[in-house]
């Protein structure tokens, strides 16, 4: 068994596990690790400007590739700076590996005033991860990294943490590097899946509710095949946009908050939910008119039946489960559900027509953005006013093209997420949609965009305020208290980094965005505009 340092064990383990991209900032506690990184050529390190940016960029990379992404964080403030994207990854199920430095192991938790000392760094991150482990010798590192990545394959992909004290990075010991393994996710009970297949064929007015687990498992093609084979209308959620093209005749989309669509749902006699949590937001605060006959498949065994009673609950990853259903219904007779599908299309079209009439500004902005982009463009979006509209009404056509932080709802998400997506998918066009308030949370990452030469336009909807909160305050208190912002000149801000600064209005946004996508450097488009909150946000 070879002898190596803890830092060498980390790097060799990552290489063995197929990790070729990491995000981070070197620090005092991780200096030795970076000393090893600089002498190899198999792992690319992306230097960010804030650990929050590292976490969000890793989220972007993971969401467009479907592979776990890795961040390196130093101890104390560096680690805690990454806590928000860790919370985001946990809430929205993103596969993230956080290798985190810690103070010297003999001095942990003793409150002696050592550098970057915290009360219980490991305990904090244990709460933000599905699994965490400390390594107190170089020999423990390969097993910890291997186990963390294994869990990201077989469980709901929430983040994992491996914490390593500085003395372990620097110390030597015997190390056995573990080879990468491919682990099969849960396949589901065959009998239960056969029952679901029979019920899908027998139903008169079935629906499919596709959640983010469909995209996470790479099951978009299987979802479309099953829906087309059985002629079943499909609902998408915020996290599953693009799992089927939103212009597909069977796709109703993410419109379940609207009355025409709810009335349609109330007529259903069966619903198949796949990879869906029925979360607070996606279910309209758990008011969704779910049929009494609910069949629920999820990789997380705690989810089926948690928020709505399920007649059959199956612990399975979406892809093998949908594959089994396709095989079990291959010989089903042609099902005449055209009238039922047409009623779904009519409900969908009624919502869109009402929006175009009620909110022409917001509708035109979404049309301009969509028209400027190819069908496979990747869009990262903050939970800001335009983001609320886009969740429902900005269409997407391919999986892993819509990146939105739903459950945690963090401002500052979209720009570094878009940069991480571009790094992981350099041949794709990537755009960030944000507001002025959210952009300033992580705007310093424009320096990273310049250093990495990333042509990612960021579109800033600028109302000089935390606009959504301002609207709420005026409605509830008749007082816009502490929500107005003194913003920089965003065009000059971009130019100060060497990026291209542009300004557009709603009428010129489409042309301006098309031009920005043709540039050879990062760009920012400032759009001075005041938007309204949708009537339905949840």
Description:
The chain is α/β, with parallel strands linked by helices and 538 residues long. The protein has three domains: 3-174, Rossmann fold; 190-348, Rossmann fold; 359-528, 3-Layer(aba) Sandwich (Rossmann fold), CATH 3.40.50.970. The chain is 40% helix and 17% strand. The protein is built from 22 helices and 20 strands. The protein has a six-stranded parallel β-sheet, with helices on both faces. α3 runs parallel beside α5, α9 packs across α13 (318-328) and α14 (338-358) packs across α15.
* Count of separate structural domains: 3
Major sheet summary line = 6 strands, parallel
Q: Classify the helix fraction into a percent range.
A: 25-40%
Return residue spans where pLDDT drops below 50 for at least 5 consecutive residues: none
Radius of gyration: 24 Å
CATH superfamily of the largest domain: Thiamin diphosphate (ThDP)-binding fold, Pyr/PP domains
Morphology: globular
User: What topology, given as strand order, has the largest sheet?
Assistant: 3-2-4-5-7-6
**CATH arch. level architecture of the largest domain:** 3-Layer(aba) Sandwich
Mean pLDDT: 93
The CA-CA distance between the termini, in Å, is 56 Å
Q: Which structural class matches the secondary elements?
A: alpha/beta
Helices, by number, come to 22
- The fraction of residues in strands falls at 15-25%
Please name the CATH topology of the largest domain: Rossmann fold
Q: Count of DSSP E strands?
A: 20
| CATH class category of the largest domain | Alpha Beta
